[in-house]
Amino acid sequence: MESSEPQLESLSAEGTGGPGVITPGDAGDDNPEPWYSARCVFLLQPISQDHSEHLYEERVVLLRAETFDEAFEKAEKEAKDYIAGDPKSRVLFVEVYHLFERKIGDKVEIFSLIRDSPLSPQDYVSQFFDTGKEHRQRD
Fold first, then answer.
1. Residue 6: inside a domain, yes or no?
2. CA distances from 62 to 52, 75, 99, 128 (A)
């Protein structure tokens, strides 16, 4: 059975949304805001012989779905597919965020999280984002 959902490759960046904008196809769009992002956290593998340290990955992907539940199901499947073939890896967490935009392009928010914390700004960043153990992509 062929999926009626268009693939991102079939959505023209030069389409109705203008250069650099991805828009849903014109036919059969019931959801005026069909885009979601999913943040997934993976346990990839132990990085020490005694298993005292582990390697984790946090990954955000863009999804198109008609409902939040459909987006969550797609996110779970995509996460499982991402680690398929690696018996040491597993999915720890999946979170879906609804994008309130019909057109996806430059400067569109694809994920947001607001968290209460008693930590100072410097401690907060150190605790959650800049621990010194990140494996960052560099130019």
1. no
2. 33, 9, 10, 23
Q: Report pLDDT for 98.
A: 93
At 99, which CATH number?
Answer: 3.30.1280
C-alpha 75/C-alpha 88 separation (Å) is 20
Bridge partners of residue 98, in order along the sequence: 36
Residue 29 predicted with pLDDT over 60: no
Report phi then psi at 133, rounded to 5. Answer: -110, 10
pLDDT at 18 over 70: no
- The CA R_g of the chain, rounded to the nearest whole Å, is 18
As a dihedral over the C-alpha atoms of residue 1, residue 99, residue 73, residue 41, rounded to 10 degrees, the angle is: 130
**Residue range 23-42: average pLDDT?**
72
**Enclosing domain of residue 60:** 32-128
Residue length, the chain? 139
Strands (E), the chain: 35-46, 54-64, 90-98
Residue range 40-57: average pLDDT? 83
